[in-house]
Amino acid sequence: MRETLEIRTDHKYVEVAERIETLIEKKVLKVGDKLLSVRALSKEQGISLSTAFQAYYFLESKGLIEARPQSGYYVKFSREYTRDLPKTSEPFDDATPVSVDDMINSVYVDLNAEKILNFSTGAPAVELLPTAKLNKAVMHVLRDSKTSCLHYEHIQGNVLLRKQIARQAFNWGGAPSEDDIIVTAGTVEALSLCVKAITKPGDAIAIESPTYFAIFQVMESHGLKVVEIPTNPLTGIDLDYLEKAIPRFDIKACLFVNNFNNPLGSCMPDENKKRLVDMLAKKEIPLIEDDIYGELYFGKTRPKTCKTYDKKGLVLHCASFSKSLAPGYRIGWTIPGRFKEKILRLKRMHTVSTNTLTQAAVANFLSNGRFELHLRHLRKALHTQSLRYIQAVSDLFPEDACVTRPQGGFTLWIEMNAKINAFKLHKRALKHNIGIAPGQIFSSQGKFENCFRISYGQPWSSRIEQGLSTLGKLMKDYK
Amino acid sequence: MRETLEIRTDHKYVEVAERIETLIEKKVLKVGDKLLSVRALSKEQGISLSTAFQAYYFLESKGLIEARPQSGYYVKFSREYTRDLPKTSEPFDDATPVSVDDMINSVYVDLNAEKILNFSTGAPAVELLPTAKLNKAVMHVLRDSKTSCLHYEHIQGNVLLRKQIARQAFNWGGAPSEDDIIVTAGTVEALSLCVKAITKPGDAIAIESPTYFAIFQVMESHGLKVVEIPTNPLTGIDLDYLEKAIPRFDIKACLFVNNFNNPLGSCMPDENKKRLVDMLAKKEIPLIEDDIYGELYFGKTRPKTCKTYDKKGLVLHCASFSKSLAPGYRIGWTIPGRFKEKILRLKRMHTVSTNTLTQAAVANFLSNGRFELHLRHLRKALHTQSLRYIQAVSDLFPEDACVTRPQGGFTLWIEMNAKINAFKLHKRALKHNIGIAPGQIFSSQGKFENCFRISYGQPWSSRIEQGLSTLGKLMKDYK
C-alpha cells in the first residue's frame, strides 16, 4: 500500500505565505513588485531560512510569485491580471424535450485509455486521495464484520455511515438525523431517484445553463422537459429570470448545483439560496440540490446549502463521496425531506441496497475523524492547482479566450473566440491524445459551441503544461 | 478472518452415501427398512468403520435415514411420503396496472433485527459463503491496484470480471464475449434497466405467478401492466396459456425466472425453454430472463437458459453473484443481446459505473478457479437443507398443507388450508419473532392468500426446528 503525499497545512511557512498572499490580494503588493530576499524575510519574521524559502516556494507553486534568476522573487499573479470571465449564459426561452447527443459517447468513449491526457475526467487525481487509510478502513471493517460485509445492507444504508453524514451536515448548517438520510450508489442514483419521485413524464424542470451533461441524461431518461436558466460564472442562476420562468413554463421542479456548479465553478451566495428556497416554498415547488462539490471550497468557510434554509421539507439534498474521497466506492446519499418514503420505495425497485463493504469502510474512515484533515489537504491542493491552471491558460491560450474563476470544485470553463467550434477542437485535440469536454454537451440545445471544460483535478506537471500549450496552439491555428 | 466450513465432496463416504440414496429413491430401500449395521456396511463395501459411520451420518443429516437407539439405522424419508405439491396457479385473465401493497414494507421492515428468526430472507446463510477467500481477494486487489480501486470503473464493468462471467456462461451453453456483458449493481438493477430499455409506460408484460415481489416493483416503477401466467411448481409457466395470452393482452415483453423461480423453485425443462424462445422470436417479443438462481441446481447438470437458444438477440439474460457468492457486494450483470447500446446509455443515466473494489475482488476470486469448488459445496449444503426443511414441514405442519419440491435455489412455497390468511399468520408469527413472506406479496392482485414462502438458506438447527414447530402450531390453532 502506498502512503499519500500529505501537505502539512499547520506549518509556519503556510501561515507566512498566506499573509503575503493577502497583501497581494489587497494590492499592497502589486504585480512586478520585488519581494524581500529569503534572508530578509527570515529576519523580519523571526523564522528560519528554510521556512522562509518554503513560504516563497509555496507561493510560487500557486503561481502567485516567480523567481527571477540572480535577482529574487517577484509578484507574478493577480486575479485582476488574468482573463475576463465568460458572460452569463443567454436565456434560450423555451422548455425543450431533452435529446442527449451522441457527442457524449464520442467524448467519453476512451475515458480510461492511459495514453490520453484527460482534461475531461471529473474527479480529483488518485494521489490526492487517502488511499492507504482507506485501505486500512476496508481491512478493519472486513475483520470486524461478523459477515465479512457479505450480508445485504439495510436499504436505507449503513446506520453508522448515516450518523457520520448527519454529523458532517453540521458544517453547512444542517441538522438532519440519520433517519432522514438515504444512502445511494453515488450522486447520480440519488438525483435519478429524486427526479423520479417528484416529477412525471412531460413535466418541465429548471436547471442551470451550462450544466453537467449527466443531469440532462437523468432528465431524458425520465421523459422531462428542461428549462435552462441563465447562470452567472460567479453567483449562479439568475433568480429574477427563474421567478418569471416558473409560471411561464409551468415549472414543476428545479435541479441546481448551487455550490461550485459543474462546469462553471460558480457559487450562489447564501442570501440568494435563502431567497430561492423561500420563492419555491411559496409555490410548493420541490428543489433538488446537487451538493457534490460543496466540501471542496477554497474560501474560509463552507458555503451553506439550500437545505440549510428548508423549512417545508421541499429541498431534496443530494451529495456523495465520489469527488471528495473515493470515486470508485460509489457511495452517495440524499436527504429528501418530505419525499423520504417515496424515495425508499423507489430505491427498493431500482437497486435495493447499496454496497455493504464500501459503506462500512467510509463509515469507519469518517468515524476516525480522518475526513476533515483529508479535506483540508484536498482543498489546499485543488486551490493551488486551480491558480496554476488559470495562470497557464492566461499564458498559453489565445488572448480573446475567457476563463472562469472557480471558488471550489475542480473544473474550468473556457469561452473561446466565437469562430472556434469546441467539438471540432475536441476531435483535433484527441489526435494529440488530449481529452477535453466540448461545450455543446453542457446544453440540451447544443449551445456553448465555442466553450469547453477542463478539469484541474490532476496536480501540475510538465505533461499538463505541454498539453495546455498544445491546446492553445490548436486554438490559435484554428481555421 | 474466519475460515468457512468446507465439506469435502470427493470423499469416499459421500460416494457410498449417494449410492444408498439412489437405492432409496428407486424404492429398492423403502421407508422403514432397516439398513446394514455400520460394521456390516464396512465389510460389504471394503471401507473403514469410520467411513461407514460418516456415510450414515451424512444421510441422517439429509433427513433420509434415522438412527433408532439400540436398534440401528432405518430409512426415514422418501419423496413419495412428503406432502402434495401445490397446484398450478390459476389464471387471473387480465392485464392489470401494478400497485404494490404496503404489505411488503410490513414484512421487510425489520429484516436485520437479530432476535427475529427470519425465514423471509432471500439469501444463503453467510456461513455457506467463502468469506475468508473473498477477504483475501479484496486485500489482493487493493494491493495490486494502482489506485487502490478508488478510480471510476468503466461503465460497462471491469473487463476481467466480464471475461470470467463469459467463461462461466459456458456452463449453460452460452458463448458470449466480454463485450456482450454489462455489469450492474445486482440483478435488480439489471432487470430495471432491461425493462426500461424494451417497454414504455402502459405496455403489458408477462410474468410468472406467483412471482418475486421485487419484480412487481420494477414493473410498477416503469408504469407497466402485468399479465400473470399460470405457473406449475415443477415445470414453470404454462406455454400454451402464454401463447394465447400474447395477442389477447397485446403482450410486449416477458420477464421469467425459468430456473428455480422464486418462490416456487420450479425449473422449466430445457425443451420448453427452446419452445418459448422460438415462440417469442416469431413475434419479435423480447424476453428478460432472470437467471439469478441458475447455478444453485440440485440435479446432475446445470439447467440451460433461454439465452442458450437465442438466435436473434431478443433474450436479455440477467443474473448476479448475490445468491451464490456475495450478497452485499452488489455485483450483477446482463447479457442483453441487441439492446446493449441502449442499456449502456440507461446505465450512464441511472448509476453510472458499478463499485470498483467489489468488481475487482469477484474477478480475482473467479480467476483463481475458486468459484466452481465453492458452488459445489453450496449446492450440496442447500440440497441437504431443502430435504431437511421439507421433512420438518411434513412432520410439523397441518396435514392439509402442501409444499413444493424445489430443484434448486433456496425457497419453499407452502399452500395451506384455504381458510388460513397468510398475512394474518405472518403478523402472528412476528409476535413469536418468526418472519415469513406471506403469499399475497407474490401477486399483483393479492392472490395466494393461503400461501407463504420460507427460505431454507440457513443451515438446520434446533432454533429453526423450534421456529417451524411454532409455525405449525399457529397454523393448527388458526381461527
Can you characterise this structure?
2 copies of one chain form a homodimer. Chain A has helices at 12-25, 38-45, 49-61, 103-108, 131-144, 159-169, 186-198, 213-221, 239-249, 270-282, 340-350, 356-367, 370-396, 422-431, 462-476, and strands at residues 65-68, 72-75, 96-97, 117-118, 182-184, 204-209, 225-232, 236-237, 251-256, 287-290, 315-320, 332-335, 402-403, 411-415, 434-435, 437-438, 451-455. With 479 residues, chain A is α/β, with parallel strands linked by helices. Chain A folds into 3 domains: 12-80, Orthogonal Bundle (Arc Repressor Mutant, subunit A); 83-90 and 99-127 and 374-476, Alpha-Beta Complex (Aspartate Aminotransferase, domain 1); 130-371, Aspartate Aminotransferase, domain 2 (3-Layer(aba) Sandwich). The longest helix of chain A is centred in the C-terminal third of the chain and has 27 residues, at 370-396. The N and C termini of chain A lie far apart (49 Å). At the A-B interface, helix 5, helix 7, helix 8, helix 11 and helix 12 of A face helix 5, helix 7, helix 8, helix 11 and helix 12 of B. Chains A, B: In the C-terminal section; belongs to the class-I pyridoxal-phosphate-dependent aminotransferase family. Chains A, B: This is PLP-dependent aminotransferase family protein. Chains A, B: GO terms for molecular function: transaminase activity. Chains A, B: Keywords: Aminotransferase, DNA-binding, Pyridoxal phosphate, Transcription, Transcription regulation, Transferase.
